[in-house]
Amino acid sequence: MENKINLFKLLSTNSRYLIFTALIEQELCICEIEELVGLTQSNASKQMNIFKQLNIVTQRTSGPHKFYKINNQFIIENKKLIDYIKDTDDK
Q1: How many domains does the chain contain in total?
Q2: What is the CA radius of gyration of the chain?
Q3: Which one, of 66, 51, 59, 69, lies nearest residue 11 by Cα?
Q4: pTM, whole model, 2 decimals?
Q5: What CATH number corresponds to the domain at position 14?
Q6: pLDDT tens digits in sequence order for the chain, 91 residues long
């Protein structure tokens, strides 16, 4: 239950909700996340560290760039939530 509470806390801010919904659709570079929510590189990285601590995203590095995507296990365990968010954001 603690994980669900932390998930909803995470999604309670506009910037993290926007990041989450964007990552549902595709993998993003940290620079794309910065632009999406208007954060500095440092603040965007701090936000992504929160996602990583909760095992919501995975990170890969390619050269100087860091890319993030939703963790496959998280998708499996939270399919109904993700489908709900996708459905309500389309309206």
Answers
A1: 1
A2: 13
A3: 51
A4: 0.89
A5: 1.10.10.10
A6: 677 888 889 999 999 999 999 999 999 999 999 999 999 999 999 999 999 999 999 999 999 999 999 999 999 999 999 999 888 865 5
